[in-house]
Write a structure and sequence with these properties.
The protein is an alpha/beta fold. The chain is built from ten helices and ten strands. The N and C termini lie far apart (94 Å).
């Protein structure tokens, strides 16, 4: 303490012996900024306070960088097959019938609940393609990304494209290190497991014809099961053209059992605490150039 006193004396600062810091056994000192106001400080307490302030500012800078990184996840790491989906918003979703208006309103409500921090899964389903399932899913993500908690990360993943990229990475061992794909099964299960709000788009399309009796491969089910296992405390939005019976299995009119497209463990995890947005009356909005 004497050494500190001597150093501070050389700065032409004035000791205030009328006040004493019992914590550091030191007389108070008129410090920079306090001399004009007549305020005096314990030099060690002042130093500790300044150190704490600098530490808090540095921590805030790190948090701000992390928030920006999370905010950019949607744009930087999403896997989108249809580039028109990148521009999808609620404003650009134009309902053409009462069902579409209800589903748009329902999706807006879902987005607001996600912004508040509610945790649940949303299934957006239709037997018909091109009705706007992916459009609404992306619109929800954009609202949450813009107006939700700043620390929330959002991600859009086209399931079919994800599986193509994973299968392509199987050949990594035959490629030079700088040519190897980063899109391995581990990459996707980790990324999809970590983000706060995930869209798995067009579930079932990765198997080909969704109206056939074809089942997802064991590897596809394994990847999806790993993702859902990691997301038990997070929210997931799933879009699909698959009906409930094609997802879970069913018995036909002759009493024959038909297995679902995915294994029951995966589906049971994906079906926990769900909201359903279903298109039954809407038709494909994608323009057709065919005249026959």
């Amino acid at each position: 303490m004497e050494a500190i006193k001597e150093q501070l004396k050389s700065e032409m600062l004035i000791w205030d012996s009328s006040k004493h810091c019992d914590i550091h056994n030191s007389d108070f000192l008129y410090m920079p900024g306090g001399q004009e106001s007549g305020e005096s400080y314990c030099p060690v307490c002042w130093r500790d306070a300044e150190t704490k302030k600098l530490s808090q500012e540095f921590t805030k800078q790190l948090l701000d960088v992390d928030r920006v990184k999370k905010h950019k996840t949607l744009g930087s790491k999403s896997i989108i097959q249809d580039n028109t989906i990148k521009a999808a918003t609620f404003d650009s979703f134009k309902p053409t019938n009462a069902e579409e208006q209800r589903n748009k309103d329902h999706a807006l409500n879902v987005a607001m609940r996600y912004c508040k921090g509610d945790v649940f899964n949303t299934w957006i389903q239709s037997a018909e393609t091109g009705v706007g399932k992916s459009h609404l899913a992306m619109s929800i993500l954009k609202v949450v990304n813009a107006y939700g908690n700043q620390e929330t990360s959002c991600l859009f993943v086209d399931v079919a494209r994800m599986m193509e990229l994973i299968l392509d990475s199987f050949d990594n061992k035959n490629k030079a290190a700088d040519a190897q794909s980063i899109y391995t099964g581990t990459y996707f299960t980790t990324l999809c497991g970590e983000v706060d709000l995930l869209v798995l788009d067009d579930l079932g399309a990765e198997t080909g014809d969704i109206f056939s009796n074809k089942r997802a491969s064991e590897y596809t089910s394994k990847v999806l099961r790993s993702i859902f296992n990691a997301r038990q405390d997070k929210s997931t939005i799933i879009t699909t053209n698959l009906s409930g019976k094609l997802l879970t299995g069913y018995k036909d009119k002759d009493g024959n059992e038909h297995a679902g497209m995915y294994d029951k463990k995966m589906i049971s995890r994906a079906m926990v605490n769900i909201e359903s947005i279903v298109f039954k009356e809407s038709v494909d909005k994608r323009p057709s150039k065919l005249e026959f």
